Amino acid sequence: MITAILQYCTLDYKFLEVNLKNLSRFSNEIIIPICDHLFNGEKESEEGIKKTLEITKRFSNAKPYLFTWKGFVSNQKYYHNLSRKIGTEYSSNDWLLFLDGDEVVDDNFKYWFEQIKHTDATYWLTCHWYFREPIYRATKTECAGLVIRKQHCMWNLQTELERQQFHYLPNIINGDHQFIGYNKKPVIHHFSWVRTKTEMLQKVRNWGHRNDRDWEKSIEEEFSRPFNGTDFVHGYKYDIVDNEFNIIM
């Protein structure tokens, strides 16, 4: 079996139920560490946490764990490190799947996992990338999600350990260099930017890359017109597909 560890905050609430439904098809344990503060140090929504716990109660394999932000830690990556460390420590399976709250796994994951579960490798998976609405899917694939044996998790809370740095882990097979999916199809669907204007603004004010560029200006420009087929994040081109996960905007 495999333990799914969901990197979650209440800004990803709209994806939670579909995530739990899909993960429950192959995972007997879904751990959801929830910090009482957002990434930028602002206090979490108490109402959002309450609604989150109401959903998790409907899934017997879902295990939410509330933890407290330690404001004296200067390293901004502490939030992510501790969330993943909590998930690892409470997990009971040999294999772990790390996901963000807006990354949804499809049914093909379980068939792919059946093929590789006897290996000793670590896999960074190939994903579909979506923008604005769940019907706009990029023609270029990316990487999202990490599948790793528990014994290979090495945690140091004082160093940066973002997902982008997981390629330093042992035996990594990186989706950037080798397509990792089932029958040459991605098994992860990344809905990070599938949001309303208000939701996008909330996202960029509270995530770790908020100082990288003027995200708010880009969002204002984006929503001043209908979607033109190219995103402002990577400049990807898009196809129109079915909303197969029935994500509600």
Brief summary:
The protein is built from 6 helices and 11 strands. The chain has helices at residues 13-23, 46-56, 78-90, 108-116, 197-206, 215-222; strands at 2-7, 29-35, 62-67, 95-100, 103-105, 122-131, 133-138, 142-149, 172-174, 188-193, 238-240.
Report on the structure:
It is a single chain. The chain has 249 residues and is an alpha/beta fold. It has one domain (2-192): Spore Coat Polysaccharide Biosynthesis Protein SpsA, Chain A. 25% of the residues lie in helices and 26% in strands. It is built from 6 helices and 11 strands. The chain has helices at 13-23, 46-56, 78-90, 108-116, 197-206, 215-222; strands at residues 2-7, 29-35, 62-67, 95-100, 103-105, 122-131, 133-138, 142-149, 172-174, 188-193, 238-240. Strands 1, 2, 3, 4, 5, 6, 7, 8, 9, 10 and 11 form an 11-stranded mixed beta sheet that branches. β6 (122-131) and β7 (133-138) form a beta hairpin. α1 packs parallel to α2 (46-56) and α5 (197-206) runs antiparallel to α6. The protein is globular. It starts with a strand and ends in a 9-residue tail after the last strand. The model is unreliable at 157-165 (pLDDT under 50).
Topology diagram in text:
Layout: E1 2-7, H1 13-23, E2 29-35, H2 46-56, E3 62-67, H3 78-90, E4 95-100, E5 103-105, H4 108-116, E6 122-131, E7 133-138, E8 142-149, E9 172-174, E10 188-193, H5 197-206, H6 215-222, E11 238-240
Parallel strand pairs: 1-2, 1-4, 2-3, 6-9, 6-10
Antiparallel strand pairs: 4-8, 5-10, 6-7, 6-8, 7-11
Helix pairs in contact: 1-2, 5-6
